[in-house]
Write a structure and sequence with these properties.
alpha/beta; 8 strands; Four Helix Bundle (Hemerythrin (Met), subunit A)
Length: 307
């Protein structure tokens, strides 16, 4: 099964909550009116799109249908799909330069942070990149051990120290090793302790100072891993992390196990941060760069995004 087929299967729960009722809505109305718009907004909210984003989508649809003088629901549905594509936003590639690049990965425990690092490593290796991991989440020994398992699965080197070590020191060692070994991308696992934001802020600031000093001209990414199954709570997490880090991209995991996949429609509007990867399974190749066109096609089960 290719990733597109996995994506279609992974979105099934969200499709049952959102798509089936919306299809029923479009087919049960002969023409769009205020009742139609109100019901559409309610359906979007129920799929965890969020009240603000749902209202914005409906208002855009109203404006487009008015401008194009569309009253039939069949034509309105096509315009609705195009608005969803625009709302999701296009994925952006990782910022990887010709020399050593660094990706910091942050996120609370349980969202799939460490497994995402392993899968991104495998993805980059397929693209011909030499990858190294740094275990800078030294707060938990289990986090270091888990990262080592994924380093072995991805067949990439890992720089680690013991539990309780200074995360910035781990990053310093990793940068030194990466330079010597001609590594293209260093991926750094960091602690995600939202219950103490000051410690998190101080820790990330220290790590960034080390990177600035040792790699002043290197390309950088800070990816935040979010669990799609937590719905709107994922946005709350993101807003908190944004206070501690300059987040450049989102990794959205566990889309296959939730009916709350509508969260992806809120991320661009609420955060202004692109989704760079999405995950729809446990296998090492089940996390892939985000493609908005592919996502909407899989969601609506069509070849061209429109039935």
């Amino acid at each position: 099964m290719g990733f597109f087929d996995k994506l279609k299967a992974g979105l099934q729960k969200t499709k049952e909550v959102l798509l089936a009722p919306i299809d029923n809505l479009f087919s049960s109305y002969d023409k769009v009116d205020d009742d139609f718009y109100e019901e559409l907004c309610d359906l979007l909210i129920m799929a965890d799109v969020g009240a603000g984003s749902s209202q914005e989508i409906v208002e855009k649809l109203k404006a487009v249908l008015k401008e194009k003088k569309i009253k039939e629901t069949s034509a309105a549905r096509n315009e609705f799909i195009e608005i969803l594509k625009e709302t999701v936003g296009n994925g952006e590639p990782l910022n990887i330069g010709s020399e050593l690049s660094v990706i910091l990965v942050i996120g609370v425990n349980g969202v799939g942070k460490t497994t995402s690092i392993g899968k991104i490593s495998a993805n980059l290796k397929k693209d011909g990149k030499k990858v190294m991991l740094a275990a800078a989440d030294t707060f938990r020994a289990a986090a270091i051990d888990q990262l080592e398992i994924w380093a072995n699965r991805s067949n990439v080197p890992l720089i680690r120290q013991g539990e309780g070590a200074d995360p910035a020191a781990v990053v310093f060692d990793a940068l030194s090793a990466a330079k010597k070994q001609g590594i293209d991308v260093l991926i750094v696992d960091t602690a995600g302790r939202l219950h103490n934001k000051k410690n998190l802020l101080d820790e990330l600031a220290k790590i960034n100072r080390v990177i600035d000093r040792e790699l002043p001209n290197g390309s950088r990414e800070t990816l935040l891993v979010l669990d799609a199954s937590t719905g709107q709570n994922a946005l709350i997490q993101a807003k908190e992390f944004r206070k501690a880090a300059n987040i450049s991209g989102i990794v959205l995991t566990k889309l296959d196990g939730t009916a709350k996949g509508g969260i992806i429609l809120s991320i661009k509007r609420e955060l202004g941060i692109p989704v760079k990867y999405i995950g729809v399974g446990e296998s090492i190749d089940d996390l892939q760069p985000f493609n908005a066109e592919q996502f909407v096609q899989a969601f609506f089960d069509t070849k061209n995004g429109v039935k």
